[in-house]
Design brief:
Layout (H helix, E strand, L loop, with lengths): L1 E5 L3 H13 L3 E5 L2 H10 L4 E5 L7 H10 L6 E6 L3 H10 L3 E5 L3 H15 L6 E4 L2 E4 L4 E4 L2 E3 L3 H12 L7 H8 L8 H15 L4 E4 L3 E4 L5
Parallel strand pairs: 1-2, 1-3, 3-4, 4-5
Antiparallel strand pairs: 6-7, 7-8, 8-9, 10-11
Helix pairs in contact: 2-3, 3-4, 6-8
Length: about 220
């Protein structure tokens, strides 16, 4: 899962980014509204964490431009304590949730998980497909009730596929959501990760649709 942090307070941005990386998310961060608008308009994110008080372009204007352009990624707005009108305006402009500063990192992570699940029609923190179970709170995987050890990259890949269970995900989409800006993005590397997961979870769980991408579904339980 790939998240964009839009925050001009460096310490807050660094703290949030570190927590999200520790929770196995891929993170990009920008510090002004113009860059935020461009990144959100040209790249695909699973969620955006958006501060409203930004240089160059305020967060509310950024959000309105995204929604006008039919960019539908979930947006979690950060607001100052007591700024209730900002929260109302943010929600009216298309925000999906808000969090008041100062906030607890644990609450932010919980809201991020919930927003991403809801955006793909998943209600529970425990996602299942056939014999596979992915606990998004504990970042743990079981297959047939047996715990399976996976690397962070393997977890991000299977987590993305099970969040989009039943849909064929193109390799380019997977690569875009698994890797950060500074990471290598290579189809062969992606296939290597899929191969390792098949060895751990069974050959039939992740199906390849030649020319289209990968899919996890209940049909192969």
């Amino acid at each position: 899962m790939r998240i964009l942090i839009v925050e001009d307070e460096l310490k807050i941005a660094q703290s949030v980014a570190a927590a999200l990386v520790a929770a196995n998310y891929t993170v990009d961060a920008v510090s002004d509204g113009e860059e935020a608008w461009f990144r959100g308009d040209t790249e695909n994110y699973d969620l955006v964490i958006l501060d409203l008080g930004l240089p160059k372009m305020d967060g509310l204007s950024v959000l309105k431009r995204w929604r006008t352009a039919e960019r539908t990624m979930p947006v979690l707005v950060l607001t100052a304590r007591g700024a209730w009108m900002e929260r109302v305006e943010g929600i009216d402009a298309g925000a999906d949730d808000y969090l008041v500063k100062p906030f607890q990192i644990e609450e932010l992570i919980a809201r991020v998980r919930a927003l991403i699940r809801r955006s793909v029609g998943q209600g529970s923190a425990l996602l299942t497909a056939g014999g596979l179970a992915v606990d998004t709170r504990q970042m743990r995987i079981q297959m047939g009730g047996v715990p399976v050890a996976v690397s962070p990259l393997e977890y991000r890949l299977i987590s993305y596929l099970i969040h989009h269970k039943g849909r064929v995900v193109p390799p380019t989409e997977l690569i875009g959501h698994l890797y950060g800006d500074d990471d290598a993005r290579d189809a062969n590397a992606l296939e290597a990760v899929v191969t390792r997961l098949r060895k751990k979870l069974g050959q039939d769980l992740i199906e390849t649709r030649r020319g289209f991408g990968y899919i996890v579904s209940d049909l192969r339980a």
